[in-house]
Amino acid sequence: MDEHEGAVGTDSTATDGDHHPTQVEFADGPIVAEFSHCDTVRVTGNLSDVILSLFWWDEDGQIGTISEPVGGVDDEREVSATDEFGDFTHGPILTGLECFTGGGPVVPGAGAVELSNPTVDACIAAVRSEHDGPEELESPFDRSASTLETTE
Fold first, then answer.
1. Which domain holds residue 21?
2. Which residue stretches belong to region Disordered (predicted)?
3. 77 inside domain
């Protein structure tokens, strides 16, 4: 854990069918993640770095995953998986992000907070409904983790 000593409080609410903001309050300000599209998240806060996690299907219907740093956030930033990593055959679908608020190493599991995309199932359904190829799309991995995790 960095200098923040953990979240003061959390609030995870869906405001409508398209936008699902998740807010975590830290002593020096909130971090808000709004998953506005299956491949895009708007992050508000002051973060030294963000690890974006996502998956997609290749041309054979096999799942691929990425979990990579995409840089910091100074007040507000919209992050698109396609802009960061290029085009994908089917998808991509953001599964979540890990936020870093200090100067420590940017490695999975070392961030101040992890926020999951609450619309993953709807995004999977949307990709599957648009898929018309002869191959089947592989079933995604188990996503039963909580939507919010803070490190202690």
1. 9-141
2. 1-24, 129-152
3. yes
Indicate whether 146 belongs to any domain: no
Task: Give the dihedral of Cα atoms 91, 97, 103, 105; nearest 10 deg.
Answer: -70
* Structural domain includes residue 4: no
**Looking at the predicted structure, is the pLDDT value of residue 45 above 70?**
yes
Burial 104-143 (b: 16+ CB within 10 A, else e): eebeeeebbbbbbbbbbeebbeebeeeeeeeeebeebeee
Q: Which two tokens stand for residue 93?
A: 């679908």
* Structure tokens given for 32: 């808000």
pLDDT of the residue at 146: 41
Can you tell me the distance from the alpha carbon of 38 to that of 106, in angstroms, rounded to the nearest whole number?
Answer: 24
pTM of the model: 0.77
Number of domains, the chain:
1
CA distance 82 to 89: 11
Report the alpha-carbon distance of residue 87 to residue 131 in Å, rounded.
16
